[in-house]
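Help needed: design a sequence for this.
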């Protein structure tokens, strides 16, 4: 398999800081005679951002009376800090982060789920060149999640990544104590450490999954495989009240973008365009452009109450949530009734 230098991961971190879609402020803008409200989302690097990129780049947002902007972050901590400071209107996040927002005093409502995934990526056991060109021997020996017993897994603790990891372990009949969890919040650093042989596996989103596979890593489990979807789009209640029509337009544009992607995903020219958007705005290395998969996207939908309640129960067990919250307390009907 094609080898990619470890330095790519370092370069990616800088790319993510610079990447964006549109303006970096969330003020209203004027388009012709119509004043458009901006909906600015803080996001993590993910192929799940593609419908938002298509909506903004193809003008589908403006057709629906809104200007969509995305602000990418390389760690959930940075994303959440921007959200709490009001630098973004909303976030693509997860239900554990939602519990933490609520415990911290924010009144955040879930307007929909998203269809992202976290993959458990294992060390392929082959040697690789590090960022200085030195060959590094890696651990290997992991072909299934059960092979991780007693070994180290790189995650980000006290959040959706840890929750997903625990759920994947449980689905395999394993306990959290069966592995050694190493806390590394920045996503690029997780892959860098895995490539350096510092652990046997790491939990990653895209584009780091594809990057890891290019470096000889392999996926041994995923949230998709176990049927877990803890991902959400959330906004403060006051933002939903102030930008109700804009958020409704946001979802209309999102669904139109999904239709466009699904109708064009077998067209080489359109696929090339979508891949270019992901390279520019999500952080895929350009040399991996042809490895980017354009999957079929589902339209926006609301998360199930059970998924929220299950996640809140886990957050309480970890001391992350002390308030007595249920799904009904955080679900918004701004778009889905």
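Sure. Designed sequence:
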């Amino acid at each position: 398999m094609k080898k990619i230098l470890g330095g790519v991961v370092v370069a990616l971190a800088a790319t993510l800081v610079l990447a964006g879609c549109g303006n970096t402020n969330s003020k209203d803008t004027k388009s012709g005679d119509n004043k458009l409200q901006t909906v600015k989302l803080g996001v993590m690097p993910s192929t799940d951002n593609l419908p938002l990129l298509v909506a903004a780049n193809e003008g589908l947002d403006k057709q629906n009376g809104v200007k969509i902007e995305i602000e990418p972050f390389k760690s959930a901590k940075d994303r959440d800090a921007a959200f709490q400071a009001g630098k973004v209107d909303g976030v693509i996040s997860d239900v554990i982060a939602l519990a933490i927002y609520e415990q911290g005093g924010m009144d955040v409502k879930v307007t929909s789920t998203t269809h992202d995934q976290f993959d458990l990526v294992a060390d392929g056991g082959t040697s690789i060149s590090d960022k200085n060109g030195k060959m590094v021997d890696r651990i290997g020996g992991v072909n299934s999640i059960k092979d991780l017993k007693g070994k180290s897994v790189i995650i980000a603790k006290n959040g959706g990544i840890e929750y997903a990891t625990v759920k994947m372990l449980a689905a395999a009949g394993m306990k959290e104590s069966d592995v050694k969890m190493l806390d590394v919040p920045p996503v690029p650093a997780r892959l860098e450490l895995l490539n350096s042989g510092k652990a046997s596996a790491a939990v990653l989103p895209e584009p780091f999954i594809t990057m890891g596979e290019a470096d000889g890593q392999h996926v041994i489990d995923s949230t998709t495989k176990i049927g877990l979807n803890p991902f959400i789009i959330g906004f403060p209640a006051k933002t939903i009240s102030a930008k109700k029509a804009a958020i409704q337009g946001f979802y209309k544009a999102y669904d139109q973008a999904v239709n466009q992607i699904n109708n064009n995903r077998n067209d080489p020219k359109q696929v090339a365009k979508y891949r270019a958007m992901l390279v520019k705005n999500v952080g895929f290395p350009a040399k991996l452009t042809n490895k980017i998969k354009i999957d079929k996207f589902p339209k926006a939908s609301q998360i199930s109450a059970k998924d929220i309640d299950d996640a809140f129960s886990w957050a309480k067990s970890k001391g992350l949530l002390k308030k007595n919250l249920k799904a009904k307390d955080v679900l918004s009907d701004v778009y889905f009734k």
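The chain has two domains: 7-115+229-330, 119-222.
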